């Protein structure tokens, strides 16, 4: 008994560690292993025979003479995914911050109601929500009709099946992930600090930039990470709202396990993505760690 | 106290798993098929006649099914694989030999489906349905009757530009472009692959959407005016859009067949054989055709076919087009790599 109390913390955390180790660590290790195996002729892999071809083919191609030449196709798909994810994050921030701020300024009783409203989209499957957006965005759809009714002759909006449609869909999908963390950091905000700022002669803009924004920064960063990273893995939205015209990373990975029957390359792509995200996060957290020290 | 509850739990668990084991020995069948490709009411009929209850799971492409089986998924009793995938599954030892010719109803199988390139002795497979991949257009949109050529699809006339629906399927799209270019769809020559890429890239600005799902609705809603389609889907499009016309391009079009296979490790092997034998009865095969809009391979099923199916040239192919059909082919690794690179380039 005494043993358990002494190691209470350990025992409390053990189930989570075991769970993550088993359901995340093991598959990751397996994926790492698959990525350095030789591919099977008909898909699958040849267990036991190692090869680094998958990583080489991410950047290089073999030309007719069997020389290695740089191949930018995959890099381009990665670049596009990062661009679209960044755009989505910015859009989500522009929409999410005022929303979170507004909710945080409401009386306690109404806040819970608003938060409840923010989470409502999660009740519906993402696929269904994407189809709903197709109906909204398409030519002759609700938005197109609305614009025509108020006198803007769109002549067909031509918005569906474009990268913009993908970005709109992604922003909508991940907006709650931006609102909730920002709200969490604003909710704790001591209102007396804002009053003090006004008392000391700050105008509204100053109070926002000098007091509220810095205090909300952890929430903004958490929200941005929560939006940016799942966006990189978006699979359904580019297929449906983008009309399958261009791939994002997840579609590329999917096609490697599908029609291309090249598992090692699919696994390697997954790993490259993981590495890029990890590096970005490390740089980010190192930079962010320094900020408060400098500020204080 | 605690010990007792643990024991209780354990015995309950044991009982439950025993129960599950007993149910397994009974009439069950796990069926893995393409989505929207089997009439649900036929499952009820099968259960009524044989006492075997079918559980359905679905996939969207041959490759999805293959990847799942290769990743070690077991528990399926029957899967449906297209011609070239039958080859892969036999070579990868994912198919169980059940000697279809020994089944009572195999006598109903019409020629040439009693044999098949990748399974000549029908040891592993029986044809479920077969069809073609061409394209459908809305004749109300066309200013004149379109030529029966892939040119209309890859280099569309002004009235169809921006109103083209393509299948989001690298195997089908690559094959169609290869027919149009006049090169082998399993080519290993990068120069020929480049020709195919050029055709696809030139077409891309005119394509509204690449999607293999909802092709019927997209045509019916007039979201697109032309869609690369499987002939059964084209037949079903016609039900809501009577002006839809299916084209058999003269450069060639894919002729595919889908086959029942009993995968390795099937838990209900005998039930699977019962099912396959049952599906070779004319009225059951006809029910599948009526639902999916594709032809079956069973003699005597004509009597049970819907009139609309028999009279639709999209399904009941006019004899003169027979030499345009190109059968499915299992491409080499090198050819598949080229194909995937073309597809990736198209979408990068």
From TrEMBL, chain B:
It holds the Pfam family SBP_bac_8. Spermidine binds at residues 84, 169-172. Coiled coil: none annotated. It comes from the Bacteria. GO terms for cellular component: periplasmic space. Its main location: periplasm. Gene3D superfamilies: Periplasmic binding protein-like II. One of its GO terms (molecular function) is polyamine binding. One of its GO terms (biological process) is polyamine transport. Keywords: Periplasm, Signal, Transport. Residues 1-25 form the signal peptide. InterPro entries: SBP, Sperm_putr-bd. It is found in: Periplasm. PANTHER family: NORSPERMIDINE SENSOR, SPERMIDINE/PUTRESCINE-BINDING PERIPLASMIC PROTEIN. Belongs to the bacterial solute-binding protein PotD/PotF family. Required for the activity of the bacterial periplasmic transport system of putrescine. This is Putrescine-binding periplasmic protein. It comes from Thalassospira profundimaris. The lineage of its organism: Bacteria, Pseudomonadati, Pseudomonadota, Alphaproteobacteria, Rhodospirillales.
